[in-house]
Amino acid sequence: MHKEIQNLDDIKKRLSLTQKVGQLFMLAVFINDSEEEIQKTEKLIHDSYIGALCFFHSRASAATNFEGKKKVVYNEKSLDRLKELITRYQKAAKVPLLVAIDAEWGLAMRVENTPQYPYAITLGALQDGVDLIHEVGRNIGLDCKEAGIHWNLAPVVDINNNPENPVIGYRSFGDEKEEVRIRAAAFLTGMKDTGILNSLKHFPGHGDTNIDSHLGLPVIDKSEEELFQNELYPFGELIKKEVDSVMVAHLSLPQLDDSGNPSTTSKVIITELLREKMGFNGVIISDALNMQAVSKMYPEKGALESAAFEAGMDMLCFSENPAEGISKILNATNPTKIETSFDRVWKLKQKIFETPRPKEAKRKSTYSELNRKIAENCITEIQEDGTVLQKLNQHNFLNLSCGNPKENSFSKGLEKEFDRTHHQLALETIDKIKELSKEQRQIVLALFPPSIKPKNRFGFDSKIVKAIQNLLSQNQVTLYLFGNPYVIDIFEDTGDSNPILVYQDFPEFQEAALQHFTGNISAKGKLPVQLKTISS
Predict the structure, then answer these.
(1) In whole angstroms, how far apart are CA 69 and each of 60, 214, 354?
(2) Which of 72, 200, 262, 314 is most buried, most CB within 10 Å of its CB?
(3) From edge to edge, which strands make up the β-sheet containing 283-286?
């Protein structure tokens, strides 16, 4: 509770129309800002009556550093710093701030040394895993609550039906609409247990794109009917429940709105589709307004904020020009419209600061225990016939890994259990591995992709990819993939290999993979997306 607040109704009565517009702005704030930047933010919060904050790691983090040219400096005490800044910014505010963060897989998405849970695509592999996903949502909600966060901008309910998608991919539960809905619903109810606010994203569906909206404007050339059959399905079903907010993506949908406006500033998409046809009554929040998909289209300061608000947006996230935006909205908008959006945002503040909290949710498991349970239930054998390891002579194979995880306990475990020396495939060892592979046809390859995103072959050097392709075509390879399943598609042909998907490189997942190899646990997961290499 904001210590200076006695009654939100009393505060509401004293707010001017200008101050109410300020409540519709969500500033981006950064855990690793300088003191000078923090003081500027405090002044802006105080003077403009800013309503909400969204925390990011630093100004060099992914949300702001589109080209990846700024070095991200890690801070082991980020969580302490986050709590300290929340306290400072709340003190600077005349109205209690809603504090948000992207914690799709936990605070670790933005904050070092905090619990990291599996990506959505990993949860998508779980069969009969609703209880585990509910527990993930609840644990993340509790982690947020303990840090002083009120609003988790999650879950992602995009249907990832484009393998080339550069920005959603692993953040989606899968490529089947009903499976996405079921898993998102479990995640939502878990968070709801803790009283943390939620947000469905990225409306009307960012899954079928091959452009990163941080960098350009993706086009989804589908009719409204097609969208309702697939992309809009999870949104439509979930907003029938208690959903606090829906985040609108930066997309071009020419069949819905041929004006040239992106969804961010499209009245057709925000007001007519989401608000009126789909009946959503909660807060509609923008995706980050600094993203180049839209920021380049509105060079005049405040014009983007005003256009988005006119189209039906209630909360303007990551506005870089709040003062100009407030001014333009006041000059261009009917006061009644301002009051309506303000009331929606205010209801969220009442829910957080005045509504009795739900009965204190408790953790069933620590994050490590929960990750272990998920790991033991998500391992996926592509062949799905349970015979992957039957052809392998477990006492005579080449123990090989590629990639540099923090700890490779899987390959070390193979070395210890089966007395098979661990070798690493790297640029400087390609020739050595080639010779070893001639002597030993059977290979167990632990693959640790450098990146979770598909850019530049998930971070693999082209020579490494070629070397792995040669192994797959010439040897019998049992491949354990500790990463994004779409990695399989960078290889032209998996040959006689047996891909086994583990999804994460966490210690708990490596231990589960070792238990799978030794036959102590079976592969219970199911591939949540289609892979080109496998399907062909």
Answers:
(1) 8, 14, 44
(2) 262
(3) 200-203, 245-248, 283-286
